[in-house]
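Practice problem: Response regulator
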Amino acid sequence: MYRVLIIDDEEPLREAIHILGDWEGIGVSEVLEATDGKAGLAMLRRERFDLVLVDMKMPELSGAELLQIAEQEFPDLLLIVISGYNDFEYTRQAIRSKVVDYLLKPVNRTDLNQALRKAVGVLDAKRKRESEFINRNITLNMSLPKLKEKMYVSIIERSFKTQSNEAFLPLIGADGAASHFACGILRMLNLEKVRKERFHGDRDLLHFAVTNVMNENSDGQFESFSFASPKGEREFIAIFTMKGGYEEDAAFLSLHHMKRAASTLKELFGIICAGGIGEPCSDSLSLAGSYEQAKEALDSMDLLSLKGSLIRQGGSAKPVSRDNPSLTGRMPQIRSALESGNVNHARSILSEFIRKCQEAEVFTLGEADRTLQGFVLVLNEIAASLDAVPPQIRSGKDGGLHSSGISSDFASFEQFGGVLNGIFDLYSGQISRTMSADRGSVLENIKAYIDNHYFEDIKISKFTEQYFLSREYLMKLFKGQYGYGIHEYVQKVRMDKAKALLSDPALKIQDISEMLGYKDKNYFSKAFRNYYDCSPSEFRLQRPGVEK
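Answer key — structure tokens:
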């Protein structure tokens, strides 16, 4: 919407313009008046207007003088001249002042609105150009870092296509300039605690603060460009670029920069960090190797001896093969214990694993991460099979531990063990509650179904799918409750019904066989003999009152 000022010393003309102008139709929100040129100039200097309609002949300050002043002080202001004098001097000044239109008195509706629409058209076009310019600059300023991040990520993941991204290579120094590049990874060991206590849970604000610190003290010679890793929110990737110089210098400066960033993060926000740096390379398109070395250096840090922040250089140490205890191998035992309702036994298995790890020679960050991920994955599968996934996990947007209130921070092995126990408590508690609440009703429903559908081909998979229970767990529950397995119980019901039906001499054995769900009379007879040690015919002859 636009603001318009009418400057004229004649009140009838000002009123006529008010009445004749299609202000709402052309998008004008406010029309103000000034009684002469001097008052009009004062209003222009005090307020912002988009369009001014000015009379050329006024006392104290004429329209021509006002145009000259406006040309200097308000170069972007649009003006429409109104005059009762068809005078060349006025026209010449109007042309010189880039007036949108020149109207003669008396002003009529058509000419006035035509001039107003012309002026508004100019204003619309101008605003559009300004908006596009601003948007382009905003987009450029915001997208350049994102573009660099995307390029670096694709290089690290070895999916970068040089030909299709050739125009952007100068952004990352891959345009042939003599430079050295290195990749570092910084991991926040207490990220969740810091995000909650220092950043009020705002992840974006935390990321902004961390990357700001990591990018500090960059200059034209040595620069750091960092961003949150797409593979894990605890990790931040830093790309170090040094123009000219030697590879050893690039390695030293990168390590020094990472250590300083870790120290600053600890001092400012209480963030405990661990980091790894890969060896420098002379080509930014070769950063994948440096990233992998940095990741290996980070993952190989010994959690058993980790004290505070530590930055390690990668590329030289060879991985050592060790036969550490595995939680994955213990998960079937934990699963069996949970399904049987023996939570304490399951907990003792987990505690024994934690103790074994603590007694090992080395237990690395990488092993801790893999153990944690595998533990959550298998517990989730167990809980899902029992329809006992914790509500916090089920309803969480990310489907992970963030929604459960359990912190997965660990900066020491003791804290890692606490995370494992916290996760176990979350899942085992829900599994126990679900089993105690639902076990009886589920088993009663299954038994009732068999009692009423014994003549059908009953498959256990029907119940496992319906109640989200594993086959082994369901079979164990049913037998524990009724003393029979599900197949055994189906057979018992059929045989009980067979005895009752055989008591009716009017029913043929073939008919009884079909009524019980057996398609073959001989198969029914064989099943009956195996169950009662006699054939259906012999059973009938043994009944009192039946002639032999």
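Discussion: The domain at 438-542 is CATH 1.10.10.60 (Arc Repressor Mutant, subunit A). Students who identified this feature from the tokens alone can consider the problem solved.
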